[in-house]
Amino acid sequence: MDARSEESQRGGAPPSGDQVGRAQMHVDVVRHAVIGPPHHGVTRYGRGLLVAARTVEAADAAGHRLRHVDLETASPGRADLLHVPFTDRIFGATLDAAVDSVRHLLDREAPRSWVVNLHDLPQREEGADRYSRRAAAYAWLAARADVVVANSQHEARGVHDLPGCADVNIRVIPLPLEPVAAPGTGRRAPDGEPLRGGDPPTPADIGLLGFVYPGKGYERLIDAAPVGTCVRAIGQAAEGHHDYLHDLMERARQRGVDFEVTGYVPEGMLAAELHAVNVPVCPHRHVSASGSLNTWIAHGRVPLVLESPYMIEIAHRWPGAVTVATAQDFRSRLLECLGDPRRTRALGAPPSWGWSEVAAAYSRVWAEELS
Description:
By secondary structure, this protein is of the alpha/beta class. About 40% of the residues lie in helices and about 15% in strands. The protein has a 6-stranded parallel β-sheet with strand order 2-1-3-4-5-6, with helices on both faces. A 6-stranded parallel β-sheet has the order 9-8-7-10-11-12, sandwiched between helices. This is Glycosyltransferase family 1 protein.
């Protein structure tokens, strides 16, 4: 029986059996604002959390009860708590529009409490002007939320560095290690159409995973790869960056490196793509949380990563899950992995940090806020 039920029974006549039943059945409603295109990483994350939270809720027969509903399908009514997975790109065409979307959402739902999970946090490496504009938008959200969730300690420090956010209530819940769907056959061309014959992927010397856009270290990897190497980008160009693919292909051609881009890979075909890569690499220096890195780890791979605060955090959290290289020794470590690809395949099972553990961590945050 929760605190509210207990409070309602103090004093007066003993409660009837019907009153006790209603008290014991009380649940707090958590609404999830899952917004954005279905294949966007933050949208997929929000949907995965909602599904996992419902599973945790069904298994929880005692303690503080929570009922999880999707904001898009929920019946009218006031939410006890609103959970918002936020990145500016999916909430609006501009930063102001993204913030306004959240403001209107809060006005409409009028929750007792709200939690914002900030993704793609502003980083100074974006440039002073862009960082300043994005930092102001994210700071507005963080300062007004009852709880801010970050997906790494590195991101938590970034939130506290936002203007006026030194004292915000912040929790760290790492991204899940999602199991990859059973291997399938067939690959996708860069335009998303299936390649003829549905052949399984051919081996690639080096592989990167995720949307292709500037700043993720593709140039560094192409320059470090030996002549004749096949580098495969598993994913598609991010919106507005298709010309960037041509720049990468030309850079690779000049270096004598074969650069391939798969385009979008459906879930059932992803495991085969991950398995076909000899050396998985995450060369992004300024990453603050990475679902693609976790996908490699969940698939039993040990990716080569470039040293950064976040990658060092991962190496400490899950020892042996990544091979960390400095900018100076990146090429030599890459050559070592190419010479012995077995070192990129984990000997044991991935760490136990799936959706059930992630949802349980969020449930503790929500329950504490509503208690």
